[in-house]
């Protein structure tokens, strides 16, 4: 999806036009979010308050992901990637900025990884006091000792 932004002081109120050949669920969500508010700034605040949607990129397309669809967010090769059940997406924000807007179902397990607690398949001991985590979609990572206490607290252990 190609996105263009025009800023003009001549406008009385912001408006958006969306051109598409197929009306997808994500486009309908975007339209609903834009129509629900008087301006884009209020819309961004509402998204952050609700903690329910994350805008990500796949190629030229912008996709709005529900938090419940996110399995893991991880920094790889200096890029922040968001993993769902069978796809991965890019997001331009650094991990700490994304973490600020996530709900309590997400917990940081290492310097470079945040996981959705609802998507965990198993947790097992690993090397040197670390724990190993496997998600329901097959993704694996280590829980570092630094974040192990917070992880256990998030699981009420």
Automatic annotation (TrEMBL):
Top-level division of the source organism's lineage: Archaea
Keyword DNA-binding among record annotations: yes
Record InterPro entries: LytR-like, LytTR_DNA-bd_dom
GO molecular function (one): DNA binding
Keywords: DNA-binding
Keyword Acyltransferase annotated: no
Domain HTH LytTR-type, chain residue ranges per copy: 54-157
Protein name: LytTr DNA-binding domain-containing protein
Lineage of producing organism: Archaea, Methanobacteriati, Methanobacteriota, Methanomada group, Methanobacteria
């Amino acid at each position: 999806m190609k996105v263009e932004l025009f800023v003009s002081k001549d406008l009385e109120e912001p408006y958006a036009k969306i051109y598409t050949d197929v009306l997808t669920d994500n486009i309908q969500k975007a339209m609903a979010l834009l129509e629900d508010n008087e301006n884009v700034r209020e819309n961004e605040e509402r998204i952050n308050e609700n903690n329910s949607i994350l805008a990500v990129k796949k190629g030229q397309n912008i996709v709005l992901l529900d938090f419940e669809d996110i399995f893991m967010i991880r920094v790889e090769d200096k890029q922040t990637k968001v993993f769902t059940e069978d796809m991965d997406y890019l997001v331009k924000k650094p991990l700490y900025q994304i973490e600020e807007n996530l709900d309590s179902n997400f917990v940081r397990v290492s310097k470079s990884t945040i996981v959705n607690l609802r998507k965990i398949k198993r947790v097992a001991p690993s090397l040197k006091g670390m724990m190993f985590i496997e998600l329901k979609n097959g993704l694996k990572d280590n829980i570092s000792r630094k974040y192990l206490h917070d992880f256990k607290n998030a699981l009420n252990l």
